[in-house]
Structures are given as structure tokens and as C-alpha cells.
Amino acid sequence: MSVISRGFGGRGDNDDARIPPGQHETYDFPVLSAGPTPAVSREEWGLDVTDLDGAVTRWGWPDLMRAPSEEFTVDIHCVTTWSKLDTSWRGVRVRDVLGDLATEAEYALVRCYGGYTTNLPIGDLVDRDAWIAYEYEGDDLESAHGGPARLLVPHLYLWKSAKWINGIELHLDDEPGFWETLGYHEYGDPWLEQRYVGD
Amino acid sequence: MHEDNDHRVDGNAAAGILREVFASDVTTARVVCGHCTAGTSVAETKTYLAGPGSILRCPGCDAILARITKIRDTVWLDLSGSASWQIHTG
């Protein structure tokens, strides 16, 4: 009889069912970045929501703090094949940020400090779990992990959960983002292994 | 404006993926930044390898010079951030 230690995670036997195909569990929180880590204070931080007609609604940090927030625990999955279970965050639901603006738009292009972009269907931001997250494991979100605030859309590969978010543009058509223009999947469902274009 | 712990290495670390594209070692090539027009050797670029692809940035202004991904047996290459590349073949 062989005994396999699961370490000190204290998790149950169903963890494997929570790991999408082609992924492995990690207990670290790897930092993946395409550039220097932007140093943005909460005072400087802003989120521009751009409607279909080009009108911009700017959210500052006090606006984010006044919005209803919630604590949530989710599993996250990076396209580089690591998954991390039971990560705890605090944030504001994207649907509460977009409000009535998203009623006609079909897609969103998310922009970030540092120039990163990624694209998602609006439905994934307003009808599914999606947050502007600003706390991780009870502490202010570190800049290395996207602080002061990042997008978190746990049902898609983590490149969609843009760090250092500073804008959400609403569009009728899908406009590929930073990695989506270089061969990565336009949607990125980890359970369907939608890593690359054509998957 | 940026933190020091940003996990960059020098451009020599991108030699492998670049060799697949150009069939030669281009780390000694000279690349001109399309943003600030500064010239540098590929080896001296700020290179980020930890993400889904490889990103080479200008050591002067941090603008992206090249983006490279390997999607199965296909390399995707975006050099739109650079003004020119001088690759010595002799």
C-alpha cells in the first residue's frame, strides 16, 4: 500500500476534480509579467469605463471603496499550467462598476497601467463571477499581483484577470488584447483547455 | 516609477526563441526603439520570460521592442515596437 502525502493543505480528496486538464496545483503564487511592475498608489489609481459612444465614466479609489464589496474564495488557473486553489480576495463586482452601461455592448477591452490589454465578452463580466479585486488573503493587494486593483475572472485563464486595471472599454465587436494577438485563445476557458487560437 | 523586483533578465535569455526565428544568434543584433529611437543590442534589452510569451523592452524607455510566443510548432513574432533591426550575418 502506498501513502501519498497531500502536505499541510488540509484539503479533501476532491481537489483533483478542481484542477482543469493539463494543469497542476501550485502552493506558491507565481508572478508572471510582461513588463516592469507599475507603481500606482491608491490616490493615483483610476478606472475609466468607456461606453459605446465614447463617453467616459471615471472611478477613483474613493468610488471603489463606496461600492458594495464582498469577500470571495476562488480557484485560479494560469495558462502556463499552474492552478492555485482556495485563493481569498475582496473586491467589487464588475457588474456594479458597469451598472447600466453594459446593456448594449457585447465585448469589453480591459486596459491596464503598463499598457497590457485583454478582451472578454461582456456576459462574462456581468453575468458570471467577476470582480475588481483589491485585497488578497486579507491584505492590500501587492503590486506584484496587480495592486492596487486587478480584474479577477476566475472561470477563465488568469491572463484574462488583468493586473493593474485602469480601464474597461465597451464594444460591439471583439478586439483581441495583448496575448490574444499573439496566438492565445480569444476566450480562454481552462476546463476546455482553450489555451491557443483554434483550441 | 517602477519597482526593482520585476523579474527581468537580459536579452541573452531570449536567444533560444530568437534562434528559432532567425536561424542564427541575433543577441548581438542592434535594434532601434520605435518609441524613443535609442539603439541597443538585443542582449542589452530588458527581457521578460515568465509570462505566456517573451517580451523584449527598450532599456532606455521600457517600450516593447518585440513580442514572441511559441504556440505549439508556430512562433508568433511582433516587432512593431522596433524601428529597425541590424543583424550581422558575415
Task: Walk me through this protein's architecture.
The complex is a heterodimer of chains A (199) and B (90). In chain A, strand 6 and strand 7 (117-121) form a beta hairpin. Chain A has one domain (40-192): Oxidoreductase, molybdopterin-binding domain (Sulfite Oxidase, Chain A, domain 2, Alpha-Beta Complex). Helices cover 8% and strands 31% of the residues of chain A. Residues 1-10 of chain A have low confidence and may be disordered. Chain A is mostly beta strands and 199 residues long. Chain A has helices at residues 61-66, 94-98, 122-126; strands at 24-25, 46-50, 56-60, 69-77, 82-93, 107-112, 117-121, 131-136, 139-140, 150-152, 165-171. Chain B has 90 residues and is mostly beta strands. Chain B has one domain (9-85). Helix content of chain B is 9%, strand content 38%. Chain B has 1 helix and 8 strands; from the N terminus they run βαβββββββ. The termini of chain B are far apart. The model of chain B has no long low-confidence stretch (mean pLDDT 89). Chains A and B meet through loops of A and strand 6 and strand 7 of B.
Short key terms for the protein model shown above:
heterodimer; A: mainly beta; 5-stranded mixed sheet; disordered N terminus; B: 90 residues; mainly beta; 3-stranded antiparallel sheet; 38% strand
3D shape of chain A: globular
Summarize model confidence as the mean pLDDT of chain A: 92
Give the tally of structural domains of chain A: 1
Strand order of the largest sheet of chain B: 1-4-5-6-7
What is the distance, rounded to the nearest whole angstrom, between the alpha carbons of the first and last residues of chain B? 41 Å
